[in-house]
Write a structure and sequence with these properties.
Layout: E1 3-7, H1 13-22, E2 26-30, H2 34-44, E3 47-48, H3 52-56, E4 61-64, H4 69-77, E5 91-94, H5 100-112, E6 116-119, E7 122-123, H6 125-131, E8 134-140, H7 142-152, E9 156-161, H8 167-195, H9 200-207, H10 215-225, H11 235-252, H12 257-271, H13 282-288
Parallel strand pairs: 1-2, 1-4, 2-3, 4-5, 5-6, 8-9
Antiparallel strand pairs: 6-8, 7-8
Length: 290
Amino acid sequence: MAKVAFLGLGVMGYPMAGHLVAKGHDVTVYNRTPTKMQAWSQAHGGATAATPGAAAKDADYVLVCVGNDDDVRSVVLGEYGAIGAMKTGAILVDHTTASAELAVELAGHAQRQGLGFVDAPVSGGQTGAENGALTVMCGGEQAVFDQAEPILLAYASTVRLLGPTGSGQLAKMVNQICIAGVLQGLAEGINFAQRAGLDVPALVEVISQGAAGSWQMNNRATTMAEDQFDFGFAVDWMRKDLGICLATANKLKARLPLTALVDQFYADVQDAGGQRWDTSSLISRLRSAQ
């Protein structure tokens, strides 16, 4: 069992850190909101720390799951940040959905200090985190990944090294690009079905068994039809992710016309007050246009 620091107790990090304790690891957490740390400690029995550096001191693995590039830099590289307190040979794993450029930056800092680094964004949402069934897309060196993999499997069903540093973040971009297109198609299909007077649950039961089937259909079609969006992955976070995708595509000269369009549709949802709604709320703008 390992000594682990977990930085960030959001909707994903909170259950992920709990799974580590359940697997027998010695876990210390840090979160900017102390009350959340205390609640987590009472629920799971792990320790808390006042700063990222205090959490990371003597840890074998430091796992980060925060909001964006700037948040990662703050807890890892900022004053009282984790990286300055980490012991030689420890491994830093960033689960945040962030830029590939940040992954390269962090890997450079880690190498200079004798640390390992893996960029490891996750997919599966809050439900996947709570059930310990996340998919983790990794970038980094094989030897470092091999050390980190058993730790990540505490809360994941699939952990895969996809290439050198930054490959995990690039893979997560592909994941979000695909999700955006599927959700828009599903929103249009459900809206069409309702306008046509079809029985949506019966329809979904049938078409989900064929080529139209997807995770989004299985898990979001019913709530879409019922206008339930107060759960899941927030529109604000999806727009952050799609912004990373579009910026990276511009550098790669890769065209993302559908992704750019869906990103603007999400902007419409934000303007309608849906910043914290689930990404399946794309259907709301179709209804408001009728």
